[in-house]
Amino acid sequence: MTSCRQGWKIHAYALSLMRLAEILLAWTGYFALHSLLAASCTKAWVGRRWPRLMPGYRMGFNAVGTLTLVPVLWLVHDTQSAWLWQWLGIWAWVANGVALMAILCLFASARAYDMDEFLGLRQLREGGNDVPQTFTVSPLHRFVRHPWYSIALVLVWSRDMNEAQLVSALAITAYLFVGSWLEERKLIASYGQKYRSYMAQVPGLIPLPWKYMSALDAATLVNSSGPELSK
C-alpha cells in the first residue's frame, strides 16, 4: 500500500511538472510571436509583399496579441497547483492598494501616448503606416523609462501566487526585461544621443529614488537639438 501511495505521488508530481512546462512553453511561444510581429524587419517584409495591408497592421497586431493571449491565460487558470503564498489581512490591503495605484498610474500615463496610433485606429483611418513621433518625456517617464512595463511588474507580483502563476510571473518578468532591451535598440536608432542621455539619467524598469530626471532637465532634453524620429 505504501509503495502504491508513493507511486501515485510521484505520478502526480510528474504531471504537475509537465503542466508547468506546458505553461512555460505557452508563454515562450506567445512572447516569440509577439516579438516577431513587432520587429521592424517583419513590418518591412509585410510592407513589401502586401503594402495595402500596412494601414491595418497595428490593429491586426493588437488583435493577434489579444486573441493568442486567451489560451495561455486559460491554461494558467485551469491548472490546479498549490499556493506558494497568499496576501492575508493587512498585507492583502497593501497588495491590492499597490495594484490599484499601478492601475491609476496606467490610466494617467496613457495621456502621454497617442492612443489612436497605439490601437491602430489612426493608421487605419488615415491609410498610412506608423508615423514617427516627437521625443517627449512624460511625468512618469522622468522616473522610469518604461512605465507600462513597470506597472505590469507591479500587477503581476502583487497577486496571490501558486505554482502556475509563479511560472507565469517569472516568464512575464523575463520577457519585460528582454523586451525593454529590444525596444530601446529601436529608440536609440530613432533618437540617437538624445535617448542615450535620457537612459543615463533614468532607470529602465525599477524606479530608483536617487536616479530621476527633473522637470527642467526633461524639458531641456526634449528641446535640445538632435534627431527625433519615432517614439
Explained architecture:
- By secondary structure, the protein is mainly alpha-helical.
- The protein has one domain (2-223).
- Helices cover 68% and strands 2% of the residues.
- The protein has ten helices and two strands; from the N terminus they run αααβααααβααα.
- The protein has helices at 2-38, 40-49, 57-78, 90-109, 115-119, 121-126, 147-157, 163-191, 193-201, 215-223, and strands spanning 83-85, 161-162.
- A two-stranded antiparallel sheet has the order 1-2.
- Helix 1 (2-38) runs antiparallel to helix 3 (57-78) and helix 1 runs parallel beside helix 8.
- It is globular, with a radius of gyration of 21 Å.
- The termini are far apart.
Give the total of beta strands: 2
**Helix segment tally:** 10
What are the low-pLDDT stretches, counting only 5+ consecutive residues below 50?
Answer: 227-231
Measured as a percent range, the helix fraction is: 55-70%
Q: Estimate nothing, just give the exact number of structural domains.
A: 1
- Within the largest sheet, what's the order of strands? 1-2
Shape: globular
| Percentage of β-strand residues | under 5%
Structural class: mainly alpha
Instruction: Estimate the mean pLDDT confidence.
Output: 84
Gap between N and C termini: 65 Å
**Biggest pleated-sheet summary:** 2 strands, antiparallel
Radius of gyration: 21 Å
Order of helices and strands: HHHEHHHHEHHH
State the main characteristics:
2% strand, 10 helices, two-stranded antiparallel sheet, mainly alpha
